[in-house]
Amino acid sequence: MKIGALLAGAALSLTALTASAQTIRVAIGTQDTTINCATAGLLVRELNLLEKYLPRDGKYKDVKYDIQWKNFTSGPPLTNEMVADKLDFGVMAEFPGTLNVTAFQRAGKRSFFIAPISGSVIGSGNGVVVPVNSPVQSFGELKGKTISVPFGSTAHGVLLRAVAAQGWDPARDVNLISQAPEVGGSALQAGSIDAHANFVPFPDLFPFRGFARKIFDGSQTNAPTFHGALVNAEYAEKYPEVVVAYLRAVLEAERLFVAEPEKHSELIAKVAGIDAEVNYLFHGPIGLQTRDYTWKPEFYSAIETAISTLRLLDRPVADLKPQELVDERYIREAYRLSGLDYEARLKVYDKLPLQARDAASGAQITDFKNAAHLWLKGEPGARHYASPQAALAALKQAEAAGQEARVVFVHDRNTGLKLFANQAWYVRDGNGLAAFLLKDDAEAWAKSHGGSVNSFADAKNAAVAVASR
What we know:
With 469 residues, the protein is of the alpha+beta class. Helix content is 38%, strand content 20%. The strands form four sheets. A six-stranded mixed β-sheet has the order 2-1-3-10-4-11. Strands 7-6-8-5-9 form a five-stranded mixed β-sheet, sandwiched between helices. It is globular, with a radius of gyration of 23 Å.
């Protein structure tokens, strides 16, 4: 494959040396528990997709590939191994990715992003949680409290913006301490911190596991965020076809996930230990985040935010512009070879669509902010409903028949955010139930639209009566 000719004039240089009888290493650093990275790591590896696309003709005839995978729990150690030439690719968020580029620069080398993988143009995915029995219902109640967060992470930047939005001084009005996800989870259970901020999937994993409650979503800052794939520039220049092959495997993983989100959520759970219900919350239909492989302007803005925030944190960030951290040519070529339209996808901001009928009425679901989903134990996939009351009524009926729910999802009536139903607040009026992440939002809705604010238990008990009207 002669990629220089295929890239519409793009100057990707090909090595003049033959690769025949050569062994080419393809070493990829992943973050399995950071489920945003799944279609660029875990799924590609577990489904053996990379082998399907690696070039085997032309200069790659008779080549042997040494495919290596290494899993990490965060970006910094992954970056250390990339800089040490132990890895060729890495998958991480925009904050550690920016530090990756800077670390390469300090070593006299270069790396760059080749594609976004998954993210949110409004910042959803990061969040702040409190112990499940905490009286705190909103971020504004955390003044003077101890909040932990992995310092230098995307979640740290989100937390600082949330603090600034309150008009607080981060050095005086809150006590910020650095804790990794597993430490923060233990601290929440021990009651030794008042709140914990973190990145995907922990702000929703901890509530799902029952010891925390989400009080703030990153979308409230309206600041874009993403995870993406990076490559060592020297490697990309030497083996551009291999880089494109990797991205074609990523796009194949995306296609497979879209076709069967429950099945692949189960696979992620089996390998990474992140509950399938949480994977589905983020990446199933109309989930918290969107898997997107095109370089939207908002993702460049996310890099700009990362650069400026890391400077505020006195982290060693070089004087770079966002465009210098990205090379779009590889993902554009991967789209072309996969028969996909990059320019058309670049204009699309929709989440993975829900194309379903209400499991009770058979009516097409069109109002996604009012949609709900019920996944029962023993069933391979989720049932979809046009309203929270329909889903909760179906849950009551299923329980009466001896079935148990794995999970119930609803959507915030204001923002459309996908929520665990048992963590939401509800407004009940004569027309039904409206769901909300925050109690304050539910109270405001009730005040302006009429109705009463209900807990999940109350909403569930009322659902059959409401649904029957």
